From TrEMBL:
It comes from the Bacteria. InterPro entries: Sensor-like_sf (IPR029151). This is Uncharacterized protein.
Length: 393
């Protein structure tokens, strides 16, 4: 999971904790005297339930994690839940620690309803500060308030490995000429015209299966499939309204044709390792590449063009980027990014400035260039979120 996505999730969890924390402390303080009387406990929980905005279920567990109350929902108490052992549930794992009094679980799929859920657990203490139980509140993730901000897709080059069976038999196969291969120039010209003049903002060209999938700015929620019958006929452009080059595009008009020409070069690079499909989104500037080894790459259009054909066809005449130059330990790197981000905006900006000047910060002295580049791009993505108004340091 990218650090930007993790940051968005963590920010949402922080909002939920703020919303729930003080409320549950108050309610938990009202329960110790009722712990030995399940019926009185149920009656009090029914009074609490309407005050817990958006919750689905509320219940009380003893100090061992066994439920002693009914499960209260909007229809009333469910007494069959009494005696249910919840001690091994994921949301109870933190609560067994001595210094933990409140926990908001990670999202999980509920056992009964099979819905994405969250559980908040608050420790119940007697007047002597001894733990006597837990107050549990379950939420349906779909009904909780969410941030209106959608996380930004990571900007760094991403590689996703494909089917191991395909990679294992890679050198036993060779490219079979497809119908699209025979008409490649016409097909690419049609795609260029559709993007530049007919309002298509996203394309996926499937060279091996001779088809294309396109998205139009006038109807962006629906994709359209074009077969070779349409793609070899320039009249297809008459089926779409003429549109000025999309105003949200970040890919320069002149680069669309260059990208498509590079797709062609990668398609015919080698008879064993070759491009199966290529995609281009002119709004976010992303290029997608899927090769015969089933490896998939996503990178920015300018980086794709800047590499040049020498990068892809160098060495043994195979596309070099199919196999990453360095096998990165992303778990270790994500932990490092989280550690550095916790230092605050000022320190992170200083670190980014050093990296941009090709200086190596002391905290990254033992890291390779590939690792430093990954850390830089992830921290840059985090700071882009902060600069939207979150950071106050």
């Amino acid at each position: 999971m990218s650090n930007t996505l993790k940051h968005t999730i963590n920010a949402q969890r922080a909002r939920l904790k703020d919303m729930l924390g003080n409320t549950l402390i108050q309610f938990a303080g009202e329960l110790p005297a009722l712990m030995r009387d399940p019926d009185a406990l149920d009656a009090h929980l029914e009074q609490i339930f309407p005050k817990l905005e958006l919750c689905k279920y509320v219940y009380v567990l003893d100090a061992n994690g066994v439920q002693i109350s009914s499960t209260i929902n909007r229809f009333g108490p469910d007494e069959e839940a009494r005696g249910r052992d919840r001690s091994d549930r994921p949301y109870m794992s933190e609560m067994h620690k001595d210094n933990c009094y409140f926990s908001l679980s990670e999202a999980y799929i509920s056992r009964n309803k099979k819905r994405p859920s969250l559980t908040a657990i608050q420790t119940i203490c007697d007047p002597g500060k001894q733990r006597v139980g837990f107050l549990g509140v379950d939420y349906d993730l779909r009904e909780l308030p969410h941030s209106e901000v959608i996380y930004e897709e990571p900007s760094q080059w991403r590689q996703i490995k494909g089917d191991p069976a395909i990679r294992g038999g890679l050198f036993l196969q060779e490219r079979v000429e497809s119908l699209m291969d025979r008409h490649i120039d016409t097909v690419l010209s049609v795609h260029e015209a559709l993007m530049l003049d007919q309002g298509v903002h996203h394309i996926q060209i499937h060279f091996s299966s001779s088809r294309s999938t396109i998205w139009h700015v006038d109807d962006p929620y629906v994709y359209r499939i074009l077969t070779m019958d349409e793609l070899i006929n320039p009249n297809i452009c008459m089926a779409y309204p003429r549109r000025a080059y999309f105003e949200r595009s970040i890919v320069p008009r002149a680069d669309v044709g260059k990208i498509l020409k590079q797709f062609k070069a990668l398609r015919f690079a080698d008879e064993t390792i070759y491009l199966r499909y290529g995609s281009l989104n002119i709004v976010n500037g992303k290029v997608g590449l899927n090769f015969s080894c089933d490896g998939t790459h996503y990178l920015n259009y300018d980086e794709f063009l800047a590499k040049g054909l020498e990068f892809w066809f160098g060495g043994d005449h195979f596309p070099q980027a199919i196999v990453p130059a360095e096998d990165l330990d992303y778990t270790k790197l994500d932990d490092k990014v989280e550690e550095l981000a916790a230092r605050g905006c000022v320190q992170v900006n200083k670190l980014l400035y050093m990296l941009e000047k090709d200086e190596i910060p002391e905290c990254l002295q033992t890291y390779s260039k590939g690792e430093r580049d990954y850390v830089y791009h992830e921290l840059k993505s985090v700071m882009d979120v902060y600069e939207g108004g979150v950071c106050s340091l």
